[in-house]
Amino acid sequence: MCTRKAALRFILVLLSLLLVLKFNVATEIEDELEELLAVDEEVEREADGGGEKLSEAEVLSKAQRIVIELNNDNTERVVNGNEFVLVLGYAPWCPRSAELMPHFAEAATSLRELRIPIVMAKLDADRYPKPASFLGVKGFPTLLLFVNGTSQPYSGGFTADDIVIWTRKKTGTPVIRISSVVEAEKFLRKYQKFVVGQFDKFEGTDYEEFVSAAKSDNEIQFVEVNQVELAKVLYPAIKPTGRFLGIVKSEPERYTAYDGAFTMNKILEFVDYNKFPLVTTLTEMNSDKVYASPVKLQVLVFANIDDFKILLDPLQDVARTFKSKIMFIYVAIDDENLAKPFLTLFGLEESKNPVIAAFNNGMSSKYLLESKPTQSNIENFCNNLVQGSLSPYFKSQPIPDNTEASVHVIVGKTFDDEILSSKKDVLLEVFTPWCINCETISKQVEKLAKHYKGSSNLMFARIDASANEHPNLQVNDYPTLLLYRADDKANPIKLSTKSGLKELAASINKYLKVKNVKDEL
């Protein structure tokens, strides 16, 4: 009897434990959210004066606590148990992850204050590879929106405001409706850039196209009003018409009105061409958006911050003249990741002085302002760029002295005169300093030059393709040997770089009538 009672007691205890575990699993996420709400209320009380004023670090710390930490145990429950979840996959060692995380935490706070029904979560994908694979995190940082457990790629910007705007649009609020002057003034204090639409009624084809554009755009907050008085708070220069659309930015060129057809595609095109400042500062966070701009002509200004401050006013004046035709971009000249790759294309990677360059992304052409960066010179440079009369830039080393050289050094600036316009036959070695096999070919060219030293109609030359360019020199493999015959410079003959010295000499003799060859190989 005692044994039967003990067994029954054990079964009851076991069932109780199973019920408790089931309840804990089902309510764990709710407890996490309740804790996050408590944190949020604490932040709000202290922000409203209900407590001591928080330092910036304390505000950030509390904001980060609003974000759920995902791990091996809770990832699937969080993602599958909520309608909307925005996940940040990061790695502690990743600099871009470190840069994004404070913005993500700040966005979480803002979305909580706006009562947007979304869970904000982050996963150390380096520490937890299994949930990272489950979520689809393949690089760092990665942002993914899960809607009822199904992922959607993030396509917005990377500041806190960018994340908030994108998230509101994807969770059902593509347009903010303003109904009072107080709301309009509050909106102005919060948003630095936005698209405003004014309609007599929030209905009809034009209005529907406006909302469709707001849903399709991933970066800018759209706002709507139905009273001219409210529209004037947001856009003071608005005219009293039945409908209006314009973009507002926080810069000298603050207001731009739209005068096109009210179709989604046309509105989006207007936004794409007018959303950037007159002069955009390139950063790691906005580089993707800048490079994706539909404005194909881009003028890049490389300078240190002090030189840029001097150039800014004249640059803005010029940018205003070429608005929607040229995108003006400032790049800190000492930025290794953003500036150096561009400057290397011009052979100016060591430059400390301001450099003004231009690119036609539609044609992959590059241009360089080679005069002083005055306003008039910059304006002429841009005018020629727009008209298509600007000569593309090809980098070149300084012109060398080849008086005593057996193998002439060719640079970009001398390619025409010494190769294409020369009446001699020319064997040109094309090399780069980093080429492993180039040294062997260089030695062979030196020996060939000595062998044909007595020939008055054959010249040997070499060019460093990493530092010199010419439109008629399109070489991708190094080393390359090109034989330019005097009577057909447009069609150089490519000689094998795998041939021995005698084979190369035989090839030269085959294609050319060489005179006065004395030395034997």
Automatic annotation (TrEMBL):
SUPFAM superfamilies named among the record's database cross-references: Thioredoxin-like
GO CC terms of this entry: endoplasmic reticulum lumen
Gene Ontology molecular function terms on file: protein disulfide isomerase activity
InterPro entries for the chain: Thioredoxin-like_sf, Thioredoxin_domain
Biological processes, Gene Ontology terms: protein folding; response to endoplasmic reticulum stress
Localization of this protein: Endoplasmic reticulum lumen
EC number: 5.3.4.1
Gene3D superfamilies xrefs: Glutaredoxin
Pfam family of the protein (one): Thioredoxin_6
Residue ranges of every copy of the Thioredoxin domain listed in the record: 32-172, 385-513
Entry superkingdom: Eukaryota
Keywords associated with the record: Disulfide bond, Endoplasmic reticulum, Glycoprotein, Isomerase, Redox-active center, Repeat, Signal
CDD domains with a match to the protein in the record: PDI_a_family (cd02961), PDI_a_PDI_a'_C (cd02995), PDI_b'_family (cd02982), PDI_b_family (cd02981)
Catalytic activity: Catalyzes the rearrangement of -S-S- bonds in proteins
Record bears the keyword Repeat: yes
Family to which this protein belongs: Belongs to the protein disulfide isomerase family.
Function according to Swiss-Prot or TrEMBL: Acts as a protein-folding catalyst that interacts with nascent polypeptides to catalyze the formation, isomerization, and reduction or oxidation of disulfide bonds.
Protein name per UniProt: protein disulfide-isomerase
